[in-house]
Amino acid sequence: MLKSLRCLAIAGGLALSVMSGVVCVNNLAVAQEKGAAYKEIDVADGGTIAGTVKFDGDVPTAKMLKVDKDEQTCGHENKASEEFVVNGESKGVRNVVVSLVDIAAGKKAEAVTVSLDQKECFFSPHVLAISVGSSVDLLNSDNVMHNLHSWSIKNPAFNEGVSGGGKMTKKFDLAEIVKITCDVHKWMSSFIVVKANPYFAVTNENGQFKIENVPAGKYKIEAWQEKLGKKTSDVTVKSKEEVVADFVYAKK
Ligand SMILES: [Cu+2]
User: How much distance in Å is there from the Cα of 215 to the middle of ligand 1?
Assistant: First the structure.
């Protein structure tokens, strides 16, 4: 909704206007959504949060995605979904985004440009996490057309084709979880998770993550997985020390 509201800036201050019957005390709301509440400071003696995200239950069998188009490029076999990947030995959950919630100040949030590739009609990586202001190069390494469809709510949504070998770059200025699909190959999906502060990590194949250079203090830490949802806990970080924050998702 916010992006449909446009408020007039008055001498650098807040604006007050009425559009479509909606009273709009804006710029402040937009600024907050952009993560302006987060203040960048020099963090000299930060601590580290390390942990593992595990699944307490039977290791799920990968859902098979039916490949029924462009088989010459996409392959003749069905593909294993990456929506819920648990390591058989460690029980670690892959592709969980772990992040600090509402941290007021900390290290610089680097705006970067990262790649999300489409290769053999599959997104790689399946989950990408970036700070607000970062860009994503949406690549097409195939020789067929892909159509990138973003299910954004806060960031501008897009639904555009990218021809074989092509590239489309999109910037994400607002924090949200954006699902990306391809309208040509309906089995394709991935997530771009946009964060308001730089304290986040994506778990590896053993469910491990590490968040570094955190100022000493107490924080809420959150895990998010597309099928399992969110889980939060509290964590206390001490200077130059490593604190453990583990998450366990129980079978629903
Ligand atoms: Cu596609």
Answer: 42
